[in-house]
Amino acid sequence: MISAILLAAGQSKRMGKENKLIKTINKIPIIKHAIENIVSSSIDELIIVVGYQNEKIEKLIVKNKKIKVVFNANFENGMSSSIKKGLNHLSIKTDKFFICLGDMPNVNQKIYDQLIGVKSNKEIIVPTYKGKQGNPVLFSISLKNIIMGIEGDMGAKKILEINKEKIFKLEINDQSIVQDFNTQDNFASK
């Protein structure tokens, strides 16, 4: 079973007073783009971790049997707290799971399916664009307990650094895997 954890709890501090996940591209909030891309892939479940302005985010989530929304009351403690909250809600049938970022609306269903389709005995599948590591990252369930040990706002980067030998890098000819929307300038360029 393939699961995905979508991190949607952050405070969008670099956006001023706006929540980046509610801002639109082509009149659609970026969180809706991210959700649609994940749900239309061959994942089996999507766990959306909300926190900051959770009511606003939850209003944008269309009901779907694949989707489970969980609230991270500790969202101010950084990305790692949201990752842990998502990990605690994975199905017991999960073999592999993605950690996905809500501010990457252009990572499409095809990219998710390419990563799922990788035939490798490595425990971490990382998409790369022109050699640069991107997102989402696909992890084997065997790494769940190690990831549960992360702290702060680093996300899973530290896990990748200390488990280099477990990584399979998949070059993807699509810059969306390295393109996030964190600032007003990112939106202005769209």
Polypeptide structure, described:
With about 190 residues, the protein is an alpha/beta fold. Helix content is about 25%, strand content about 25%. It is built from seven helices and ten strands. It has helices spanning about 30-40, 55-60, 80-85, 110-115, 145, 155-160, 185-190; strands at about 1-10, 25, 30, 45-50, 65-70, 95-100, 125-130, 130-135, 135-140, 165-170. The strands form two sheets. Strands 1, 4, 5, 6, 7, 8, 9 and 10 form an eight-stranded mixed beta sheet that branches. A two-stranded antiparallel sheet has the order 2-3. It is globular, with a radius of gyration of 15 Å.
SS strand fraction: 15-25%
Q: Secondary-structure element sequence?
A: EEEHEHEHEHEEEHHEH
Using the CA coordinates, give the radius of gyration. Answer: 15 Å
From the helix content, strand content and strand pairing, which structural class follows?
Answer: alpha/beta
Oligomer: single chain
Mean of pLDDT: 88
Could you estimate the helical fraction of the residues in percent?
Answer: 25-40%
Number of helices: 7
* Largest sheet: number of strands, sense, barrel closure: 8 strands, mixed
How would the global form be characterised? Answer: globular
Uncertain spans: none
Counted beta strands: 10
Spatial gap, N to C terminus: 35 Å
